[in-house]
Amino acid sequence: MSLLRFLGLTDRSDTGGERGDTQTVRRISAKLERLDADKAKYLAAFAYVLARVANADLEIDASETAEMERVVTTLAELSEAEAALVVEIAKSQARLLGGTENYVVTREFREMTTKEQRAKLLECLYAVAAADGTISSVESSEIVAIAEELGFTRPEANSLRSAYRDKLAEFQ
After folding, report:
1. Does 9 map to a domain?
2. What is the pLDDT of residues 36-88, one digit of tens each?
3. What pLDDT is stored for residue 15 in this prediction?
4. pTM, rounded to two decimals
5. Is residue 6 part of a domain?
6. What CATH number is attached to the domain comprising 121?
7. Domain annotation covers residue 112
8. What's the DSSP call for residue 168?
9. Is residue 11, in this structure, part of any structural domain at all?
């Protein structure tokens, strides 16, 4: 694999992989070859959406990265090194391709998951955003957008949000 392809700088029409997979999800899931293909795809999309929220304020700090790694390690039963790799790739992709991939990857995650799995992601999004002690208004808005993309109603999303009320910037 060339360095340009790894960084996502190759021709975007080179889709390869399964129909419906985004290049971002394929890139992350390829690093997880030891996992079942469906689980790797799920984890890749999950990690990318976590990175999407962490990058919402254009800065992913160490506490957000650590929380993402913790979530990925727990969720996929990966080693710390594997989780760190997944998170680093997801962060890189979110920074490089965020505007073009955000909705596509989130929609792909919605199509491959149950409502319970999507609720778990939403809960983890709040945990990542709150990792530095405050959920900024930009991060909160991004989570609301993601919740809508995942098919949650406003009341459903707000019920998860209420658990993090003390971390919301607008209430501090």
Report:
1. no
2. 778 888 888 999 999 999 999 999 999 999 999 999 998 877 888 888 888 99
3. 42
4. 0.79
5. no
6. 1.10.3680
7. yes
8. B
9. no
